[in-house]
Each structure stands twice: as structure tokens, then as C-alpha cells.
Amino acid sequence: MTSREVKEIAYTLGAELCGIAGLDRFANAPEGYHPLDVWPACKSVVSFACRFPAAVVSCGSDVAYTRVRNSITAKLDALALDFCIEMEKRGVSCVPVPTNESQWDEKTGRWRSVVSQKHAAQAAGLGTIGRHSLLITPELGSMVWLGCVLCGEELEADPLREPVCDNCGKCVEVCPAHALDGEEPVQQACWDHAFGDDPEKRVWRISCHACRDVCPCCLGSRNGG
Predict the structure, then answer these.
(1) DSSP alpha helices (H): ranges in 15-124?
(2) Percent of the chain at pLDDT above 70?
(3) CA–CA distance, 138 with 128 (Å, rounded to integer)
(4) Are 155 and 79 in contact (CB under 8 A)?
């Protein structure tokens, strides 16, 4: 199959962006979290993204953002599964990577996906990771949600993007948990502040997305389409 044919499948299933990465771009993956650690037959990685509705970041209630995040996670997981099925019909084996499912990595003291969605997307040329640790795409900014699959066929890789983030520091200044003060984001500080139960309303919610809101490239960059 050609890379174009592979992308057309993703677009038909609902992806808005799609890119392909060769395994050489995962040389710096943490031990145990390289695509080959997940599936030794992997020969390339297909990454895709869907639009995250921008208006929900301006809501006065946590409900809309939380519901969109949960629903779009399920959407990307379903897209990845359907993509693998369609590829298998064409004689190509693929393995879906969960969109939002992490496990504890004792070696580095942080939660990780079995293959980082953000790093896969960056390796596939969808965008670049910003200072706030979110992927920024030229077309849709950081208002995207990501999915990827491990592909058993070697495909032509897409060119890498030039950095979109210019390190303006606005996300660092606005973070209420000071999770971005150092060179590396403090994952647990962010998660402890932003995710959890609301004791008054007795619901689980995402209560903070300040770094996404303040980013000048939240909705895309002047380099986008």
C-alpha cells in the first residue's frame, strides 16, 4: 500500500490530520515504550488527529470540557480499531495504541502510554510539542486529540514540522500548579491539580486547561493551512 492510500482510510474514518513515521524517529523512546517493545513486527507508525471543539475551553462549567475529552477519547480509540480492521482487509496487519490509557513507569517515575501519542504525532509530522507539553499543529493548534496505530508494513514517512511553539512563556506564567517552572513538566503536579473529584458536585471532572487556553497557537499558527 502507498502512504496516500493509508491516509485515505484514516480520513474516511473521520481523522482530520494523518501522518506516518518511520521507526528511526523513535530512537529516544524510553526503555520499554518503543513501538517495537509493544509489537516486534512493527515497521512504521500511523498517527492521526481529530479536532477538539474550541468553544468548550471558554465554558464556565467543567462539564462540557470533561465530556468532550471523554467522548473524543472513545472516538479516537474506535477510529484506531476500525483503521486496523480496514488495513487487515487489505492484507496489512496493524495494532491500535490506546488513546488515553497510561501505566506507571518505575524507571522514570511517571505515567506513560505504551507509545506516546504526542511523540508519535510529532514523529509523523503532524506538529510539534510545545512548552506546555501539548502537541501543536499548524492547522488546528493544540485543539486536537490524538490516536495512532503500529503498522506491519514499511510506509513512506512524512517530513517533520518546524517548531510551532516559540517559547513565549505564557503557559508557564498561567499554570496554577507551577508544573511548567522547570525544564521538564511536572506531570503529577499537573494531574493532581487538573483532574479529580469535585466534592461539592460529587463528580469527576477536569478543572484546569489554562496552558491550552493561553497558548497563542491554541487554534493554529500563521503557518497553518
Answers:
(1) 35-38, 63-89, 117-123
(2) 98
(3) 9
(4) no
Longest dimension (CA), the chain: 54
How high is the pLDDT of residue 221?
A: 61
Task: Report whether pLDDT(183) > 90.
Answer: no
- What's the gap between Cα 73 and its chain centre? 10
Q: What is the mean pLDDT of the chain?
A: 94
Contact (CB, 8 A) for 180 and 131? yes
Distances (CA, A) of 97 to 121, 200, 212: 12, 35, 24
Q: Is 95 within 8 Å of 37 (Cβ atoms)?
A: no
How far is Cα 118 from Cα 47, in angstroms, rounded to an integer? 9
Task: Tell me which amino acid residue 184 is.
Answer: E
Whole-number CA gyration radius for the chain: 17
> For the segment 61-116, what is each residue's pLDDT rounded down to a tens digit?
999 999 999 999 999 999 999 999 999 999 999 999 999 999 999 988 889 999 99
b/e string for 171-191 if b means 16 or more Cβ within 10 A?
Answer: bbeebebebbeeeebbbebbe
